Amino acid sequence: MLSAISFFGDSTSGVGALGFDGKAFLIQVITFVLAYLLLRRYAFGPITKLLDERRETIERGVKLGEDMQKEKVELEKKVEEQLHEARTEADKMIAGAQETARETIREAEEKARGKADNIVTEAEGRIVTETARARKELEKEMAGLVAEATEAVIGEKVDARKDAQLIERALTGKEKQAA
Asked: What is the per-residue burial (b if ≥16 Cβ within 10 Å, else e) of 47-63?
């Protein structure tokens, strides 16, 4: 070791000629080793622990983010399924409402047809009644006219029985002519 000190220590030969001081270098190496040992014992442990805690926190955050992303995808699927079910249900409700509306319209049309048929039937009945009444009035009027004409032609009043027979013959003759 002495030769190493003389090799490093002599400034005229060897490494000393380059401006290298061996004693200073040796002191610096010992200082570095002592500083390293002190830092390793008192500083590197807490720093490493702190770095590990930060790494674990970051990993938990990343895992939480991934879990939230998966949950988001699942929720989006559930929302889409529920929207699809809601749309299907709404379509069914609309179809049911449309069918109910069609049925209501059909029922209203049938009721209107029934009422129209009743009105037509009543009108036809009234027409038949009015026609019969008008014919009877016409027959009475005709009978009166025939009686007046007969009286004018014969010059005497015809009794009710003879009058009725003449009227009946006249009416029967007119009906045969009309047919």
From this structure: eeeeeeeeeeeeeeeee
